[in-house]
Amino acid sequence: MNESTSEIRSQVSDAEWLQRVDLAACYRLVAMFGWDDLIFTHISARLPGPQHHFLINPYGLTFSEITASSLVKVDLDGRKVVDSPYDVNPAGFIIHSAVHAAREDAQCVLHVHSVNGVAVSAQQDGVLPLSQHSIFVLSSLAYHDYEGVALEEDEKPRLVRDLGDKRFLMLRNHGLLTVGRSVAEAFVAMYFFETTCMIQVRAMSGGQALRRISQHIVDGAPTQWELVTRGAGGGLAWPALLRKLDRADPGYRD
């Protein structure tokens, strides 16, 4: 443990440190899976306790550089509440703060500009029921129309209205967003979202007529989602992903 890590670790609770480690891991995994867009998207996580405090990336670091100790603690307006040598991008917190404020279950909000996700977000019909992955997305999917770069406070109520109680939000002509009861859940949801989009792009490029999954199968997907993922990622996939990351890129724990 280096000096900077030790200093931060001594200042925070065990619960906050665990959230920091999970969120740093999430950033590294997004980079590992190729969903990052230089430094230009964000993943935020709510901290335990009565205050509305959140962790977000230090603006200017790539996702593959982010560590548990470098994450910045901010309030609901994106302002630093603990001194940090790193800058934050309050404008980048617009979408995240809107969702966190509206949804008590939004412990983690994950937003990416993945190539496949943006491609499908530009298609008129959005996500199609073409794969097993897609049924889980379609069972809890909302859309929000593009209003330009998300810099304006007055977009928040429309975004919150469009998201409603859904887990997946497709930002038209922009990208993908997932909401999770934990960092693990938000990441696993994004894996299904981006994979759904990748399969759709490839299927549509094949030149054959597409076979769509029936609506009654989609309707049964929520129950299957919880069973298959064991709590949407926390039980099985997330520990396995952390082991994978520890073998390849363990620096996120610093």
Automatic annotation (TrEMBL):
Q: Which GO terms describe its cellular component?
A: cytoskeleton
- SMART domains associated with the record: Aldolase_II (SM01007)
InterPro entries of this UniProt entry?
Aldolase-II_Adducin_sf, Aldolase_II/adducin_N, Aldolase_II/adducin_N_sf
Please list the residue ranges annotated as the Class II aldolase/adducin N-terminal domain. Answer: 21-201
Q: Which SUPFAM superfamilies match?
A: AraD/HMP-PK domain-like
Q: Which Gene3D superfamilies match?
A: Class II aldolase/adducin N-terminal domain
Pfam families recorded: Aldolase_II
Q: Name one GO molecular function term.
A: actin filament binding
Family to which this protein belongs: Belongs to the aldolase class II family.
Q: What is this protein called?
A: Class II aldolase/adducin family protein
